[in-house]
Design brief:
heterodimer; A: about 230 residues; alpha/beta; Rossmann fold; about 35% helix; about 25% strand; B: about 260 residues; mainly alpha; flat
C-alpha cells in the first residue's frame, strides 16, 4: 500500500482552479521536490494532505485513510508563513508540540535549536525572518512523522541560513518518512531530491526520478524546470 | 482538551486582561448598590436592575470581544498551528467555549471580590450614593444605560457575524450567504420577541410579579429584574450559540 495516493484530486477556489485532477503516489524514504511557479498549486496540495482544507472532488488517501484527525498525527506540515504563537518562548514551543504530538522528540528539538544557534529563552516575536525560518524547520523535523512537508523553506532568507536549513534537512529528517519540499529555488534544492514533481496551473506537467532524468534525458532538474516553464 | 484550554488561557492572557478591565468598568461599579440597596433613595428596585444590566453587558461584551478575537484564528496564520493538531475541530471549539466560560467565571469572582473590597474597605458605597443623588431619575438612568448596553451588545454581535460570514464567504459563497441570512434573521427576530416579553413584564406592577414568583426578596425579583434576567439568559444563549454555530459550520469543512 502506498503511503500517499491521490486520484483525480481537484480543488477549486470559487472560480479558480487550484488543482486539477492530480494523480500521485508517494512512498516512504524518499525526498520529493514539489516545484513550480507561484500559484501553481504547491501549497494547496500540501494543505490538502495536511487536512487543512477539503478537496472539491477526487480522492486523497494516506495509508489508505482519508485525511482526518488520525492522519494529522502522521503528517508534519511546515507552512511558508510564521505560524507559531508569537508569545511563546522557543523552549515553550517544544513543550507545546510534545503535548500534542506523540512523535515529537523534545531532545532532537533542543539539539536543533543549539545547532542552528537559536536561543531557547527568546520569544518567537523577537526572531528575525531567518531565525523564524530555522525555528519552523527545527520544530517540523523534530517529529518522526510519516510525511514531512516543508513549504518554501528557503524563501526570503540569506545564503548562509539557506545552507544551514538544507544541511538540517539532510542531517535530521526522519529516514522512514516521505519528505515533500516545495520551492522555486530549484538549483538549491536539487542535490537533495530523489523525485521531482513539476506543477503548472494546478496540473502535474512532469514527474520523475531525478537520477533517471539526468541519465535518460541528460539534463538536471533545474534545466527541466527551465524547459517546462521557460517558454 | 485540558492542554488546549491551558494554551488558550495562556495565549489569551492579554485579551483576558482587557476583558477584565471592561467588565470591571461596566459591571462592578453599581454592585455595592445592589448589595446595600438604599430604599430611601428608591434604589431598592432600580439598583439591582442597573447592576444586572451593567454586569450582563460587561461580561457579555467582554465575552463577545473574546470570541471575536478568537475568530481571527480561522483566517490568520495561527490557524495552521491549531488546525494541524491531531485534535478534532469540535474539541478545539469546545475548548474555546470552556476557556471563555472559565474566563467569565474568573471575572465574576473578581467583580464580587472588588465589590466587597469597595464596600467594606474603601467606603465606595457612600461615594456612589452621593454620585447617584445628582441623577434626576434613577429609572431614566437605568433605561438610558440599558439602551446603551443593548446597542453595544448588538453592534458587537453584528461585527461578530460579519466577521464569521466574511470568513465563510471567502471560499463558499452560497453557503456563506445562507448562514449570514439565518444569523441576521436571528438578530432581528429574537430581540423583538425578548423585548415584547420584557415590556409586558415591565408593565406589570412589581407586586404582581412578586406574587407570581413568591417568597423571594422584593428587590431581586421585581418585574424589571425579571426582564433583565430574561435578557441575561437570552444574551448568554446567543453568545454561546454563536460560538457553537461557528464551530459546527467550520467543522462541516466549509473549505475555509
Amino acid at each position: 500500500m502506498s503511503l500517499l495516493k491521490t486520484e483525480k484530486l481537484t480543488k477549486i477556489y470559487q472560480n479558480r482552479m487550484a488543482l486539477s485532477s492530480i494523480n500521485l503516489t508517494l512512498e516512504s524514504k524518499k525526498v520529493y521536490g514539489l516545484l513550480g511557479p507561484n500559484g501553481s498549486g504547491k501549497t494547496t496540495l500540501m494543505k490538502l494532505i495536511a487536512n487543512l482544507m477539503q478537496p472539491t472532488s477526487g480522492q486523497l488517501l494516506i495509508n489508505g485513510e482519508k485525511p482526518s484527525v488520525t492522519t494529522r498525527a502522521t503528517v508534519a506540515y511546515m507552512p511558508t508563513e510564521s505560524f507559531i504563537y508569537k508569545s511563546m518562548k522557543l523552549v515553550d514551543v517544544g513543550n507545546f508540540y510534545s503535548d500534542f504530538f506523540e512523535d515529537f522528540n523534545q531532545e532532537t528539538y533542543l539539539n536543533l535549536l543549539d545547532e542552528m544557534e537559536l536561543p531557547k529563552q527568546i520569544k518567537v516575536s523577537a526572531l528575525s525572518s531567518g531565525m523564524s525560518a530555522k525555528l519552523r524547520v527545527a520544530v517540523t523535523l523534530s517529529r518522526k512523522a510519516q510525511i514531512i512537508m516543508l513549504d518554501e523553506p528557503l524563501n526570503g532568507i540569506d545564503l548562509l541560513t539557506r545552507d544551514c536549513i538544507i544541511k538540517t534537512i539532510v542531517d535530521n529528517s526522519y529516514e522512514e518518512a516521505a519528505i515533500i519540499i516545495s520551492s522555486h529555488l530549484v538549483e538549491l534544492l536539487e542535490p537533495i531530491l530523489d523525485e521531482a514533481i513539476l506543477l503548472d496551473k494546478g496540473k502535474i506537467v512532469y514527474m520523475g526520478n531525478v537520477e533517471n532524468l539526468r541519465e535518460n534525458e541528460g539534463i538536471s532538474v533545474a534545466n527541466k524546470y527551465r524547459e517546462v516553464f521557460g517558454s | 482538551m485540558m492542554n488546549l484550554i491551558k494554551y488558550e488561557l495562556n495565549r489569551n492572557k492579554l485579551y483576558l486582561l482587557l476583558v477584565t478591565v471592561i467588565t470591571l468598568v461596566f459591571g462592578a461599579l453599581p454592585l455595592p448598590f445592589a448589595i446595600n440597596g438604599d430604599p430611601e433613595l428608591g434604589f431598592n428596585i432600580i439598583v439591582p436592575a442597573l447592576m444586572m444590566i451593567l454586569l450582563i453587558y460587561g461580561v457579555g461584551l467582554g465575552m463577545l470581544i473574546f470570541m471575536i478575537l478568537q475568530q481571527r484564528e480561522v483566517w490568520n496564520r495561527n490557524g495552521v498551528l491549531l488546525f494541524s493538531l491531531p485534535v478534532s475541530r469540535f474539541k478545539i471549539f469546545t475548548s474555546k467555549i470552556l476557556t471563555g466560560l472559565l474566563a467569565t467565571l474568573g471575572l465574576l469572582v473578581i467583580i464580587v471580590g472588588y465589590s466587597i473590597l469597595y464596600i467594606n474597605i474603601l467606603g465606595g458605597f457612600e461615594i456612589l450614593k452621593e454620585l447617584y443623588a445628582y441623577i434626576p431619575s434613577g429609572f431614566t438612568f437605568a433605561v438610558v444605560l440599558s439602551v446603551i448596553g443593548e446597542w453595544l451588545y448588538w453592534i458587537m454581535t453584528i461585527i461578530f457575524l460579519i466577521v464569521l460570514s466574511k470568513t465563510i464567504l471567502g471560499h463558499n459563497k452560497s453557503k456563506g450567504w445562507i448562514i449570514a441570512l439565518i444569523a441576521i434573521g436571528l438578530i432581528i427576530v429574537l430581540p423583538i420577541g425578548v423585548s415584547i416579553v420584557s415590556l409586558v413584564l415591565m408593565s406589570l406592577e412589581p407586586t404582581v410579579s412578586q406574587e407570581l414568583i413568591g417568597g423571594l426578596e422584593a428587590n431581586i425579583l421585581d418585574s424589571t429584574s425579571i426582564s433583565i434576567w430574561i435578557s441575561l439568559i437570552f444574551n448568554w444563549f446567543m453568545a454561546i450559540g454563536m460560538f457553537i454555530t461557528s464551530g459546527i459550520f467550520l467543522d462541516k469543512k466549509l473549505n475555509i
